[in-house]
Amino acid sequence: MSISSIESVLQQMRALAPSMGSAPASSGEAAAGGFAGELQKSLARISSAQEGAYGQAEAFEMGKPGVALNDVMVDMQKANIAFQTGLQVRNKVVAAYQEVMNMSA
Fold first, then answer.
1. Contact in structure between 54 and 18 (CB atoms under 8 Å)
2. For residue 19, what is the DSSP state?
3. Which residues of the chain have pLDDT under 50?
C-alpha cells in the first residue's frame, strides 16, 4: 500500500466523519486523546472490573450478608471476558504494528 492510497483513504474518512456525527480530529487532539486515551480508559475499566469481582468474591468468602454466589460468579465471568477481550485487542494491535513495520517503502 502506497502513501498516496493511504492519503486518499484518510481523505475519504475525513469526508465521511461529519455525516457520522463527529468532527474530524486534528493531529494534536488525536495524539492527546485518540486511540491511546481510549486504550488507557479500557485498561482502567478492565482493572476496575477485576478489582470489583475479586472484592465481591472476598466478601462472599468472608460471609458478608447481601453477597450472593451467583452475583460473584457473574462478575468474575464479566471480568474474565473483559480481560480476554483486552488481550485480543493487544494481539491485534501488535500484529498490525508488525505488518506496518514489514511494509516496503
1. no
2. G
3. 1, 23-24, 28, 30
